[in-house]
């Protein structure tokens, strides 16, 4: 389902071949269930797909985060450890693939000396809850996707 959406790599200038699959790595007692895209602090983070921005949220583990649903409301895209949001970003707005979401950082529980985008995808259940879903490894779809280019 994710591959059919043809997501782009969300970090500015990052080639698909440069991504590393750390989805199954252990994080304490849990699996990572996301990929980390290492990049210089302040690198632009773009929407991987079209869809609605459903939640802007600050949490202890994820720091400055954004949740986006695909157009059909079947997938949630999670962008975490942002340094800050893009100017004008608001919950409920429609994003287009390549729209600016924010900037790479190390907010939340990320190491200050290792800025990165923690990117996760969830298959949503019937309740379409932004915080809950079945994890999907985004790595295979991103490896075959395009490079982010600003709209």
Topology:
Layout: H1 2-5, E1 26-27, E2 30-31, E3 35-38, E4 44-46, E5 51-59, E6 63-69, E7 75-85, E8 94-95, E9 100-104, E10 116-123, E11 134-136, H2 139-143
Antiparallel strand pairs: 1-2, 3-10, 4-9, 5-6, 5-8, 6-7, 7-9, 7-10, 10-11
Describe this protein with a few key phrases:
2 helices; mainly beta; 9-stranded antiparallel β-sheet; 151 residues; globular; Glucose Permease (Domain IIA); two-stranded antiparallel sheet
Structure, described:
With 151 residues, the chain is mainly β. The protein has a single domain, classed as Distorted Sandwich (Glucose Permease (Domain IIA)), CATH 2.70.70.10. It has 2 helices and 11 strands, in the order H-E-E-E-E-E-E-E-E-E-E-E-H. It has helices at residues 2-5, 139-143; strands spanning 26-27, 30-31, 35-38, 44-46, 51-59, 63-69, 75-85, 94-95, 100-104, 116-123, 134-136. The strands form 2 sheets. Strands 3, 4, 5, 6, 7, 8, 9, 10 and 11 form a 9-stranded antiparallel sheet that branches. A hairpin with a 3-residue loop joins strand 5 and strand 6.
